[in-house]
């Protein structure tokens, strides 16, 4: 096993979040081979170093995080004498693996299974207000005031009052967002409104979305390292609260005006950092067609465009080229592939790509005030310049920095950290605009405030974007 950073070592073992791990290290409580670890970046060889925390030996047994698109008919339990459980269905042998929350036998959809008890608690404790969204089919008719009644807190048949919930989509199936997990809760809430649930599927939990996880019915897989990190960062940002309150997940509107968060005050910031495609310009529509045309040149037609786009989103062009070479065995050098992509797209950028709503006016206003601006993108500088020149915004941009100038693409924060450094502005004084979850995470991890920008290409991820960034705009005018 490879060496790893000391703070990573601690978080992988469940000793809290990244910032808690850093604190442990700062306090000198972690020893490696008898000596205190001084910096979070210090390397630990998990299999050979002797590690102690607060005087006790620490053995490396990293925790496991799995996601399942649960089919009906499987019991959400660790063991059962008669029935298949999610643990036996997934063939998990490791001790301590538990489903994160209960789905009924006949309920389908997203289920996290892990041995990270602290994370499970953070996701399930009602005081933490983690969203769970369900698709609900039902028989009967919901009353006309159903949305208000969910919002005010449904009273169940036994008199229990639920926390406020949001009827995101009132049709049949409906989509309901709740923040607690009482026994048979969704079914009982619908029953209290005179209907009977006939089919129930969990669509999301906190930042995990079934759609983005690419799991078909009954499929399961381990979360990637960056997905686990995202989950940890999400739960770290959620403090326990007591007492009842309105649903107020940042940006996730519930139809009551008081719950929409304010947008950040742009006067607070000295630099404005824009991702390019989908954020500053409306160009995401053309990439699927380019990938398809490029692969067709090599006779490759048998692939899922949606799957491909979800795999490469956020990658730098060299990372994409490597991915294409490995996945599709393209017999070309990365530099050659990038040149080809540029040839294919540069004309489109010159002629067919418009600015996103309100972007021109916004740039005029912030440049008029003398603030700094940068484009921070995974695209190539040549394409960005071609588009910026033809849109007449080049003189409004102080810096263009692309992912191939830093160690790795988004969600790694490197591109944002480097941009702030080159502009000479502290991360906390930077406002980032991003249209995809990976980019939002990159900005947040760099310690910046992030505003998610709506884009048709990522319309299915809107709730996730809102939850991660905390702010969302459809037009830059909203900030002025
Ligand atoms: N609510 C229910 O009624 N059942 C589930 O499985 C999950 C939420």
Mean pLDDT comes to 87
Low-confidence stretches: 240-260
Give helix % range.
25-40%
Describe the largest sheet: 9 strands, mixed
What would the CATH topology of the largest domain be?
Rossmann fold
Query: How many distinct beta strands?
Result: 21
Could you give me the name of the CATH homologous superfamily of the largest domain? Answer: HAD superfamily/HAD-like
CATH architecture of the largest domain: 3-Layer(aba) Sandwich
Which distinct ligands sit in these coordinates? Answer: uracil
Description:
The protein is of the alpha/beta class and 480 residues long. It has helices spanning 6-12, 18-26, 86-90, 117-124, 146-152, 185-192, 210-213, 225-236, 285-297, 305-312, 317-328, 334-352, 359-368, 381-391, 414-423, 437-445, 462-469; strands at residues 4-5, 30-32, 35-36, 43-44, 51-53, 56-57, 65-70, 98-99, 108-114, 132-139, 166-169, 174-178, 196-205, 208-209, 220-222, 271-274, 372-377, 399-402, 430-434, 449-453, 472-473. It folds into 3 domains: 4-58, Structural Genomics Hypothetical 15.5 Kd Protein In mrcA-pckA Intergenic Region, Chain A, CATH 3.10.290; 66-236, Pseudouridine synthase (2-Layer Sandwich); 263-480, HAD superfamily/HAD-like (Rossmann fold, 3-Layer(aba) Sandwich). The chain contains 17 helices and 21 strands. β13 (196-205) and β14 (208-209) form a beta hairpin. The protein is globular. Mean pLDDT is 87; it is low at 240-260. Residues 103-104, 107, 184-187, 200 line the site of uracil.
């Amino acid at each position: 096993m490879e060496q790893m950073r000391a703070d990573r070592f601690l978080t992988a073992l469940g000793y809290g979040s990244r910032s808690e791990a850093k604190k442990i290290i700062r306090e000198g409580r972690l020893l490696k081979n008898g000596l205190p670890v001084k910096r979070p970046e210090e390397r630990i060889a998990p299999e050979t170093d002797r590690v102690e925390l607060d005087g006790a030996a620490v053995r490396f047994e990293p925790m496991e995080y799995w996601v399942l698109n649960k089919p009906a008919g499987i019991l959400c339990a660790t063991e059962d004498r008669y029935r298949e459980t999610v643990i036996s269905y997934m063939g998990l042998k490791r001790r301590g693996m538990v489903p994160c929350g209960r789905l009924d036998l006949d309920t389908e959809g997203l289920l996290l299974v892990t041995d990270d008890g602290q994370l499970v608690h953070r996701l399930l404790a009602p005081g933490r207000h983690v969203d769970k969204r369900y698709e609900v089919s039902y028989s009967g008719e919901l009353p006309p005031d159903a949305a208000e009644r969910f919002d005010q807190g449904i009273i169940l048949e036994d008199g229990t009052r639920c926390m406020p919930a949001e009827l995101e989509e009132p049709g049949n199936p409906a989509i309901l967002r709740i923040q607690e997990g009482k026994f048979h809760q969704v079914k009982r809430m619908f029953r209290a409104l005179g209907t009977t649930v006939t089919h129930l599927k969990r669509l999301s939990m906190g930042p995990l979305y079934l759609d983005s996880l690419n799991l078909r019915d009954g499929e399961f897989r381990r979360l990637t390292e960056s997905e686990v990190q995202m989950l940890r960062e999400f739960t770290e940002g959620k403090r326990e609260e007591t007492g009842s309150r309105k649903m107020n997940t940042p940006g996730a509107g519930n139809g009551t005006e008081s719950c929409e968060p304010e947008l950040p005050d742009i006067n607070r910031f000295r630099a404005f950092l824009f991702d390019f495609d989908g954020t500053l310009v409306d160009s995401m529509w053309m990439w699927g067609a380019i990938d398809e045309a490029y692969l067709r040149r090599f006779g490759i037609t048998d692939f899922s465009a949606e799957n491909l786009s979800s795999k490469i989103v956020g990658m730098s062009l060299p990372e994409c080229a490597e991915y294409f070479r490995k996945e599709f065995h393209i017999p070309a050098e990365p530099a050659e592939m990038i040149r080809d992509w540029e040839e294919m797209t540069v004309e489109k950028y010159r002629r067919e790509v418009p600015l996103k709503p309100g972007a021109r006016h916004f740039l005029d206003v912030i440049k008029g005030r003398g603030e700094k601006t940068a484009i921070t993108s995974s695209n190539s500088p040549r394409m960005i310049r071609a588009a910026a020149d033809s849109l007449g915004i080049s003189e409004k941009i102080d810096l263009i920095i692309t992912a191939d100038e830093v160690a790795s693409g988004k969600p790694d924060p490197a591109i944002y950290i480097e941009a702030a450094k080159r502009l000479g502005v502290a991360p906390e004084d930077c406002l980032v605009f991003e249209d995809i979850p990976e980019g939002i995470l990159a900005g947040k991890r760099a310690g910046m405030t992030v505003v998610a920008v709506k884009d048709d290409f990522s319309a299915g991820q809107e709730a996730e974007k809102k939850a991660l960034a905390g702010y969302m705009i459809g037009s830059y005018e909203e900030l002025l």
